[in-house]
Amino acid sequence: MDELAALVEDIGRRSYDANFGKRRLPEVFDAELWQNLDETGLSRLTTEQGAGPAESAVVLGGLARYAAAVPIAETDLLAGWLAQQAGIAVPETGPLTVAIGTGGTATGVPWPRAATVVVADRSADGLSVGLAADPQITDGHNLAGEPRGTLAYDTVGLQRLDTAIGDELARRGAWARCVQIVGAFDSALELTVAHTSERVQFGRALSKFQAVQHSLAAMAGEIERARAATDLATAAVTEYGFAAPQADYAVTVAKVAVGRAVTPVTTIAHQLHGAIGVTIEHQLWSATMRARSWSDEFGSTASHARRLGRLALDAADPWDVLITCPTPG
């Protein structure tokens, strides 16, 4: 794990240094970074290299710290896995993305022009999967500038799969976003600590003021709470697999905990940075805006909180749900 983390750190930092001060809306796909990920096997770590969620978390969180402009989670954990479930051949190299839609339309599709699109058309009786052939794309982007498009696609010839595959796809996406948000949090905290240590007011570094120390402590506390919930989810999906009820419960908890941390973490970071933190060229902006955007993907915080409440109400003993991951049956 240490070697993997060091590799991701090196690749992510080199990408960030090469793009320092060049961020724009919408962001441009980082082809050089993707080539490095392809050559090192990191782009398809679980689908081709036999790695598990723990290794995937190292890659997702590490690249998120450096605001990597590539669809890393979409390629390996989502589109690549889904194509395998449907027995669909996808290009051996290059980025992939997934378009989750209904009736031939999908919104919020990540990086639709930079990647091969795997369609996941949901309906009441199942999931239809296939490659998007000549889709009509309406461009857009999220708060961080990451491309998010609307796709109109043909549903003819799609492979029908069980509804459970669609549920697992959404769970995989929710887990990935939790890991990535915690990575963005780490970047925001590191930048904020550095800024308050270097910035001097009234003859003292900002970090010497008690109010600033309290804010930093509150920010760190929120991040560690989110990390603990995400680590629980990672342990659950590693031990039981993404399809298991334990994974469903743990990922739901993580999505709630991480989502609730987004506002205080990003707010404190920007308050302590002042005006400089809201400029698009500053790395803080890329970190906080990604966290805010990712928190609403694959289910909002509120929707997962409602789901967590239903899990508690439906349990034979709600106390068991509050203190442990539920077991099958």
From TrEMBL:
A cellular-component GO term for this protein: cytoplasm
InterPro entries (alphabetical): Acyl-CoA_dehydrogenase, AcylCo_DH-like_C, AcylCo_DH/oxidase_C
Name the UniProt record assigns to this protein: Acyl-CoA dehydrogenase
Keyword RNA-binding: no
Domain of life: Bacteria
Keywords associated with the record: FAD, Flavoprotein, Oxidoreductase
Gene Ontology BP, a term: fatty acid beta-oxidation using acyl-CoA dehydrogenase
The protein's enzyme class: oxidoreductase
Organism of provenance: Mycolicibacterium fluoranthenivorans
Residue ranges constituting the Acyl-CoA dehydrogenase/oxidase C-terminal domain according to the UniProt record: 174-308
Gene Ontology molecular function, alphabetical: medium-chain fatty acyl-CoA dehydrogenase activity
Known EC number: 1.3.8.7
Transmembrane feature ranges: none
